[in-house]
Amino acid sequence: MYYVNQEQIAVRLNTIPELSDVLKELASDWQGNTLQGLAQERALHLAIEIVTDVGSYLIDGFLMRDASSYEDIIEITGAEGAFPVAIQETLIQLVKLRKPIVQDYYTWQRNELHPLTGELVELLPTFKLSIERYLEQELK
User: Catalytic site residue 98?
Assistant: First the structure.
C-alpha cells in the first residue's frame, strides 16, 4: 500500500483557483508597471512551487523513480499519467522559470507580460483536476 500525503497535495491544489484568477487579471489588464510585474513574478513562482511540490508528493507517495531536477519531476509524473500529455511541455517551460525568478531575479523583465501568465489561467485548473482524478483512480 502507498502512503500519499493527500492532505498536503490538496492544500497546494486548493490555491490554484485564486492563483488562476490573479493570473487572468494580470493578463487581461497588463500595463507593465512595477506592481504588476512583481505580482506576475510572484504568481509564476507560486505556480512553479505548486506544480513541483505536488509532483514531489506523487513521486514520494507512489514510489516513482527519483527526480534529478524540476523538469524531471514533470517528466516522471507525466509519464505516470498524472496529467494530460498535452500540458506537459508547458509545465516544463513553467518550471524552467524557477532559476530566473528565484536566483536571477535582478535580470527578470518585470515590465513585460510573460506568455505563460495567460496560458496558466486554464492550464492550472486542468492540472488540479487531473491530479485529483489521478489520485482517485490510483488510490481506489
Answer: yes
